[in-house]
């Protein structure tokens, strides 16, 4: 009953498709183009109105890229990130691609 009530009030149960742009060589995606972001009510204006001013790192594309690169590197070094570092091999999980239509892993994000 509780889960039904939560599902009626939220969209947490929705699963959106993965981002295909990265497979096509795109290196940057507008946050508004990510499936589920608009549906969740996110807008840049609402985000900025309730947040403190952007830091130098956030307001510069180069600095933001550097920050995200540091986060990616730290994530890759994290001991428990091993399942996400490389693509899943079909010989290891034969039905993986029938369940996961648009897989992504940390090596794909790094490109």
Characterise the protein shown here:
The model has no long low-confidence stretch (mean pLDDT 81). This protein is globular. The protein is an all-alpha fold. The chain is 40% helix and 0% strand.
Layout of secondary structure:
Elements: H1 2-9, H2 44-49, H3 56-59, H4 61-77, H5 96-99, H6 106-110
The gist of it:
The chain has 111 residues and is mostly helical.
Keywords for this structure?
111 residues, mainly alpha, 6 helices
Q: Tally the helices: what do you get?
A: 6
Provide the residue-averaged pLDDT: 81
Q: Which H/E pattern describes the elements?
A: HHHHHH
Mind summarizing the main beta sheet? none
| Weakly predicted, low-confidence segments | none
- Helical fraction equals 25-40%
Number of strands: 0
The Rg value, from CA coordinates, equals 17 Å
What class, by secondary structure content? mainly alpha
Inertia-based shape = globular
Distance between the termini: 44 Å
- What fraction of the residues are assigned to beta strands by DSSP? under 5%
Oligomer: single chain
